[in-house]
From TrEMBL:
UniProt keyword Zinc, yes or no: no
Protein name: DNA adenine methylase
PROSITE patterns on file: N6_MTASE (PS00092)
GO annotation (BP), single: methylation
Segments passing through the bilayer: none
Molecular function as annotated in GO: methyltransferase activity; nucleic acid binding
Keywords: Methyltransferase, Transferase
Lineage: Bacteria, Pseudomonadati, Bacteroidota, Bacteroidia, Bacteroidales
Length: 446
């Protein structure tokens, strides 16, 4: 893949294990195995980088992910359902951003908090910010009497929050995001929905959502810019890196970022055309409905990068998913208290991340390859040490054994890359001399 094409990719969010460093090889192998007038399936699309790279190489893609926000990003960046009117509608949508507001009655209880937050950020007053956030009337603050808005939410778990009590503000302000930032995020999410109701343009809808996800990922105050857990104020040293980052993250202008991302999306997708339309789906690859969806498609290659470690990806990306559906979630509790990560109850858990279920999950994928009669390209990183807490649920040998069971006549080869991925653990659990080696395993249909 040419450097120019790599620079043309839009990186929508900070995504764990994104295949930026192996993209050239992945695309090269998929191109080699690709047959004209067929699709390449990106089975676990994540942030869509692989799908985008294939698309830029004029390969029609079926991009799939079980998380809806990932499906949105692929739909936007693969120009799915884009019409002749889409770009002009997006330009009009950009003009309306600064005018969108949520009902002033919903903002009123937070006005003093917003003013104080702005003052404390300007003064770099960590003590004052910690005190302010401890008094904030959000759903996770169990130390104070619930506000009227929190009471309303508790009576409406599972209900949509559009044009009602602001969801992001009442769940994530003062932790993952600033208070004023959260109010603007709520306003933008409601604006996006209203824009779709008026214009019925699916591509503009996914473009607006993708820009919102990019905004969330940029301003979030967390380790690695994912959403597993916010970074709290634990001391008052202004020179501590996490405190420096707190002031940086809280100082972002949400509207300016959002508009900037929309313009970037506009620039990077405006002139792209595919030979045939791409498809973006949101399915669990183990569900029968996904296999049925592929039945009438001509598929020459399936590419997969499954989440095969003990770490559930939904834990790292629950907030974009909640923002996508915009329904008040009931929060998970541990020993009678809401978790620090503010995880929703019932978040998706992948069988690929389960020691007891992972092999069967991989069998489902290999059975899909067998039924589809296509070539298969699989990304796999091997943990040299199991002490990292990021143990693989299946070994490379397990995968090769399952392949022998389902596609014994396929020609196989393995490519090895010599670089490490950032560990997902807390710093206390990081193993500094470990070597996680990345492989690309290719099963070529003879």
């Amino acid at each position: 893949m040419m450097k120019k094409n790599l620079e043309s990719l839009y990186k929508p969010v900070q995504y764990l294990g994104a295949k930026r460093r192996t993209l050239d090889t992945i695309v090269s192998e998929c191109r080699r195995l690709y047959k004209k007038e067929s699709y390449v399936v990106d089975l676990f699309s994540g942030s869509s980088l692989v799908s985008q790279a294939l698309y830029l190489n004029k390969i029609p893609v079926i991009s799939n992910d079980v998380m809806k926000f990932c499906s949105d990003m692929s739909a936007c960046l693969l120009n799915v359902e884009k019409t002749n009117d889409s770009l002009s509608l997006l330009k009009e949508a950009i003009k309306g951003v600064s005018l969108c507001q949520i009902d002033s009655d919903f903002i009123e209880p937070f006005k003093d908090y917003i003013d104080n937050e702005e003052r404390l950020i300007r003064a770099k007053d960590l003590n004052g910010l910690k005190d302010l956030y401890s008094q904030l009337p959000v759903i996770s603050n169990e130390a104070i009497e619930p506000s009227e808005q929190v009471k309303y939410i508790r009576e409406h778990f599972g209900k949509e929050a559009f044009n009602s009590v602001p969801l992001i503000t009442n769940y994530y302000s003062g932790s993952y995001f600033g208070i004023k930032q959260s109010i603007r995020l709520d306003a933008l999410r409601c604006y996006i929905e209203q824009n779709y109701i008026v214009n019925h343009d699916s591509w503009v809808y996914t473009a607006l959502l993708t820009a919102l996800y990019s905004t969330l990922s940029t301003i979030v105050h967390s380790a690695g810019k994912h959403f597993a857990q916010p970074i709290g104020i634990t001391d008052f040293d202004k020179n501590k890196i996490t405190n420096i980052r707190l002031f940086e993250n809280r100082s972002y202008d949400v509207d300016a970022l959002f508009i900037g991302f929309l313009k970037d999306i506009f620039a990077k997708t405006g002139n792209l055309k595919t030979l045939q339309p791409c498809i973006s789906t949101c399915n669990n690859v183990q569900d029968e409905c996904f296999a049925i969806l592929l039945e009438d498609k001509n598929i020459s290659v399936i590419y997969a990068d499954p989440p095969y470690t003990a770490q559930q990806y939904s834990r790292f990306y629950h907030i974009p998913e909640v923002v996508r559906y915009y329904k008040y979630p009931q929060l998970q509790q541990h020993r009678g208290h809401i978790t620090q990560g503010l995880y929703p109850d019932g978040k998706f858990k992948s069988d690929f991340c389960s020691k007891t279920k992972a092999k069967e999950a991989f069998r489902t994928v290999f059975n899909l390859v067998k039924k589809t009669q296509c070539s298969f390209v699989l990304s796999y990183s091997e943990s040299k040490k199991d002490a990292t807490g990021n143990e693989r649920m299946v070994t490379r040998n397990d995968i090769l054994s399952i392949a022998e069971e389902f596609i014994p006549n396929y020609k196989s080869k393995q490519l090895r890359f010599d670089f490490d991925y950032k560990q997902l653990n807390s710093s206390a659990k990081v193993v500094h001399d470990k070597e996680d080696k990345e492989f690309l395993i290719i099963f070529e249909k003879r």
